[in-house]
Amino acid sequence: MQPLALTMGDPAGIGGELSLRAWLALRHTPHRFVLLDDPDHLRRLAASLHLDVPIVTLSCPAEAPACFPDALPVLPVPLAAPAKPGHPDPANATAVIAAIEQATALTQRGQTGGVVTNPINKAALYQAGFAYPGHTEFLAALTGVPGQEIMMLASPQLRVVPVTVHVSLRDALASLTPARIAAAARTVATALQRDFGIARPCLAIAGLNPHAGEQGALGDEETTIIAPAMATLRAEGIDVSGPWPPDTMFTAAARQRYDAAICMYHDQALIPLKTLDMDHGVNVTLGLPIVRTSPDHGTAYDIAGKGIADATSLIAAITLATELAERRSRSNPA
Q: I need a surface site. Which of 54, 118, 173, 314 has the fewest CB within 10 A?
């Protein structure tokens, strides 16, 4: 299989350190990736952190597998200004965006097997004219499927999908419709079959209100919005259950009854996953024609450059991306 394309993320954050540590952890495993980053920045960072990571620059991803056990393979994306840990510089936004664009293009051409993105700082990118709410929407636009992207957070213990994502709670509730819920669940069911190898996925649909509305006593959205979506999905042959009371659907016993939870808003999905397994949580973008994962955390400016960043989530993202890409390759050998 082709190596994965790993993007630099914000050079003032912990992405560089995570990439160095991920290579150290994976160099003698079957996992392979090529990092799109500034080689000089990486060398300085490795030296400052006392990490023995040789850097080799490549001209194409095909060279990565052979050298990976001995050196971290890098496709050069030069920074415009020296990166200062903890202090994002809008001057480097162009390089951050270019790394994402190049990784996506390489994967679309089949030169890399998937994209793994290090955390970015959206505020710094906005100052440089970045026009997207975040990574996910940008990748959907780059791959020609804007509006079809769905965010899943996955860990060994739980998979969750928020129907509404990075909007205020007020706006999230106002934008919920049966069609939107059904579209998200449909995408999830397809991805679980194709990418996760689950023949007949079981989806748990979360209620919106306390106790899933208590038969209308605490709100009627379960009846007027969620139930119609579930009826549509069942008519299409998708196995759904619910609406589940949100306060009980994430217990250990309940989690055994479904493959993914479809949640109504961001925190309803992410709080239980991050509480259960923050370190191994992986952000997976469904609905794209390519595989994309990322660690389930941000740039962590407060610890950048201090040598204490934990690469567990990035390693999990690389591992999962490899598994998903291999399944896609087997199902689409051409």
A: 54
Residues 6 or more apart from 129 whose CB is under 8 A from it?
none
d(CA 184, CA 62): 35
pLDDT band of 130, cuts 50, 70, 90:
confident
**Residue 92 sits in the same domain as residue 112:** yes
- Give 3's DSSP letter: P
- For 281-298, give the DSSP string: -EEEEESSSS-EEEESS-
163: CATH: 3.40.718.10
- CB neighbourhood size of 247 (10 A): 11
* Confidence at 217, pLDDT banded by 50, 70, 90: low
Assign 303 to helix, strand or coil. helix
Q: From CA 8, how far away is CA 17, in angstroms rounded?
A: 10
Domain range for 208 is 150-287
Q: Tell me if 56 sits within 8 A of 71, measured CB to CB.
A: yes
Within a 13 Å sphere around the CA of 19, how many CA atoms are in the beta-carbon half?
36
DSSP 145: -
The last residue of one of the domains, among 252, 268, 287, is 287
Task: Give the CA-trace dihedral at 270, 271, 276, 281, to 10 degrees.
Answer: 30
Give the integer Cα–Cα distance in Å for 194 and 65: 26
Total residue count of the chain as it appears in this document: 334
pTM: 0.93
Q: How many domains does the chain have?
A: 2
